[in-house]
Amino acid sequence: xxxxxxxxxxxxxxxxxxxxxxxxxxxxxxxxxxxxxxxxxxxxxxxxxxxxxxxxxxxxxxxxxxxxxxxxxxxxxxxxxxxxxxxxxxxxxxxxxxxxxxxxxxxxxxxxxxxxxxxxxxxxxxxxxxxxxxxxxxxxxxxxxxxxxxxxxxxxxxxxxxxxxxxxxxxxxxxxxxxxxxxxxxxxxxxxxxxxxxxxxxxxxxxxxxxxxxxxxxxxxxxxxxxxxxxxxxxxxxxxxxxxxxxxxxxxxxxxxxxxxxxxxxxxxxxxxxxxxxxxxxxxxxxxxxxxxxxxxxxxxxxx
Length: 304
Description:
Order of helices and strands: HHHHHHHHHHHHHHH
Number of helices: 15
Largest sheet: none
Strand content: under 5%
């Protein structure tokens, strides 16, 4: 809660950085005096900063993030309309990343210092170093313009056509997943190498269990703590950090809403999206901490 309080205070303080009269900065120079006066009254600009912040925080706790001066729509309603798009991209990206990283990281640890390990390690470093916008452009060039497999931009809601929805979502989700998968793969390989030196792994090998059974049934779970932590952190990051991908592929999610709010000077909407994403980030990390005991009973015993 302390972190969320600091974030909310920082977000609301941005209003103080607007040049001149915040109401004029929000509405533009062409706004009428009556409209400016109405916005000043709505934002309580004649009150002190602490009074204004306290009123805004109280409304936010009641899930009232204000009303956009550009669209006239409630901020929370607009965010919730955009959330399914960003959430779907985040889920697809996480599933793609984990589907690639878990087998590759596990096998790279099992075959440490072999050609396979060196190849996957080098590939992971290369993928981590490529910016998302460059990766997205490369995928568009080869998979869309070259092969014609995917649409360049646009979005189709899942309710309208599930197949078309996945067709449009695959490429932006893949753009987000590739660098994440590389990080996951490197992290899991490191933790798996340490786990494979444990006595219980040696015991399992002495019992004649198959390699696959040992790796994926005995060694994977205790090697997944760092991976789960990072996946939780990335879940929050992907919810609000998909700005570049959503703009590049013209996806109507929360990231694009942030950019539109900046260009339209929709400060109330920008405040709402930032605090919403920050809250989601903190909640997800708390859930990740709670999940440790479900993965490894030893955590429950130590905490008890």
